User: What shape does this take?
Amino acid sequence: MRGRIVSAALAALLACTLGWAAPLLDNLVVVRDGSSFSVLVEESRGYPAARASALADALGYAHAGNLIQMDGESVRFIAGSPFFAVGGQIYQLANPTYTSGPHLMIPASWALEWLPAARPRQWTYMDGRLVERPSVTVRPPERDHWLVVIDPGHGGRDPGTTGVGGTREKDVTLAIGKRLADRLRRESDIEVALSRNRDTLVSFADRPRAFEQRGRDEVPDLFISIHANSMPRKPHSARGFETYFLAIARTDEALQVALRENASLQFEDGGSAAALDPLNYMLTDLQSAANLQESRLLATSINRSMAATLNGPDLGVKQGPFQVLVGATMPAVLVEVGYLSNRSEERLLRSSSYQAKIADALADAVVNYLADYGQRVWSSYGSGG
Ligand SMILES: [Zn+2]
Assistant: This one.
C-alpha cells in the first residue's frame, strides 16, 4: 500500500530538508508549468503542514472543503485524522490533518511523500521541492536522431584553471570535447555540435545554443559541459572525477566548485562575477527544473561510465548552481574530469591516451543514457502521458 505510514527515517529526512533550506524554512515549493509556487508551511503541531487551499493552488488542483480534486481523482481528508481516502482506498499519514481557523491544514508529507509515490509520472520530490515531471521537453517522436551539444569549458581569454605544471584547463577541455564529438559522430542516430572547436570564448548563454547558431531550430537533447578541477593551493593531493547537474549546492565543496566555474562570467563582454544567489538558479530557471530528473540520470550514467574506465577516485554525482547549465533547456550536466592541481593527474589529463579514455567513457555513457531516455520518451508517448 502506497500510503504507508511515513517512516521515522523519512520524517527525519523531511525535517532535515526543510530545516536545511533555512531561508525558505516556512515554504513548501512546487515547480510546475514553468513557474515556482511557494506554499506557506507552519509547524504549530510539531510537524510541517500547509493549508489545503494553498497546496491545491500550487499543485494546480481544485479544492473545496476537505477535498482536493486531482486530475480524475479526488482526495478526501478528514479533519483531525491522519487518514484520507482516494478512489475508495484509505491511506494514512504519520500525522493528522487539523483545522486552523477556517483552514484545513494538511501535513507536508502528503505532498512531498505520498503524492510522488502515488503519481510518479507527474511528480517527483527533489532537493526539497515537489517538481512536475517534464512532458514537453523530450524529443518529438518523429525525429529519428538525437542532438547532443558538447561544451569544452572556458576558451579564449578565459583559460580556466591552470595546472601545477602550467596545463591550461581550456586546452584539456577542448581536446576531450573534440574527441568526444568524433566518437559520437560514429553513432548513426546522434548528431553533435561543439559549443567551440577552437581557442575562443563563448558566453555561458550561447553555449547550449550550438545547434541554433548553425541555423537549426530544433531543441537539443543533451548538453555536456567538460571541465577540469583545481584546488586553491597547488600542488594538492586531491584527485578524481565528478559529475554535476544543476541545483542548489548541497555541500560547501560543491558550492566552491560552482563558484570557481562561474567566475568565467568575468571574461564575458558586459559580464561580471555576479554575486551568486544559489536559490535563484532553481527558482527562476524552471525549464531546467523540469529537466532535473533527466539531468540527474545523465550525470549518473556519465559518472558510472567514468568509474568503470578511469583511474579514479570516483567523487560521485553532485549538484551545484552552475551558470553554464542555467541556459540549458535540455538534460544538462557538467563533468569535472580530474584535478589539474594534482601533479600525477595533470600528467594524465594532458596525455592524449587518457583524454581518449575519458572521451570513450563519456561517449559510452551518452549512448547508454539516450537508449534509456528513448524508452522513457516512447513509453510516455505511448500511454498519452
Ligand atoms: Zn572549468
Remarks:
- Residues 153-154, 160, 169, 227, 261 surround zinc ion (CB under 6 Å).
- The first strand starts at residue 27 and ends at 32.
- The domain at 8-132 is CATH 3.30.457.10 (Copper Amine Oxidase; Chain A, domain 1).
- DSSP finds eleven helices and 18 strands in the chain.
